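Table S7 (text form). Paired inputs.
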Amino acid sequence: MKTIAIIDDDIYIGDMLEELLRREGYATLRAYSGTEALYLLESRRPDLILLDLMLPGLSGEEVLPHIKGIPVLVISAKADVANKVNLLLGGACDYITKPFDVEELLARIVVALRRGREEESGLLSFEGLELDLSSHEATALGHPVKLTKTEFAILKLLLREPKRALAKSVLLEKLSLETPDCTESSLKQHVSNLRRKLRGACGRGYIEAVWGIGFRLGED
């Protein structure tokens, strides 16, 4: 059973989250301030942390740098893009704005937990295509593929959600956190170069364009 720590001083929201998560089969831990959260994490290691920012004592922004090796999903009423970017660059794995949709939150939790397992193993794979996150090496059906930083970042995003079509806007937003070398006008070219390299290595391009949406891994 996965354990999720809820760090939020709002009793109503915390109780709602705890009931929701337990109903979904998760165990829960609670902390009501930043200081209490740090004490909790000294003795317990949850699989995921839901972190509010506006906490008494230490704020969520001050707590985040102390959390190592545990995925953190920030839940906050702060909605400005600059704040989101700073937190994601500062170690959070995701960010959802209050008020939130319960189904969206549960989906983001599933993705964050899956990503945590992937990062522990350091390997993403799909039908013979493999990406080693620790060594930054890619292979296609056993053949090495030399990728640029941007191509690696694109392939990593697609491998994390295989067969799901990722919108161009979603790709660009996430890529902006890893590399500035990808813009709306250059994304198509980066994907084309990546597909060409994969096909050259193993005879299969792997990446499909989904008309009107973006790209996904598939039969190409």
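Next pair, protein 2 of 2.
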Amino acid sequence: MKKIAILSIVFVGLAFAACKKERECECTETTSNNVPGSISNTDPVVKYEIREIKGSEAKTWCQKSTVVTTTGTFVSTVVDDCKLK
């Protein structure tokens, strides 16, 4: 009987450890372009709530990304530097 109780407790503990949780992703966005005289713009920290997702999936979703857009000679770069909290 003790073995069954201990195994039940271990199983419940593992189930909670692997469950999907609510997580928070904090991102800082920096925008820059190649227009002479322009300056880079850094937005304040933006927080995103990630719900019903596993930790490994959250890490994949919340990471640093860079998007470069070119229109003629105009080049705009947006960098999102994100960290999982």
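Residues 21-84 form a domain with the CD59 fold (CATH 2.10.60).
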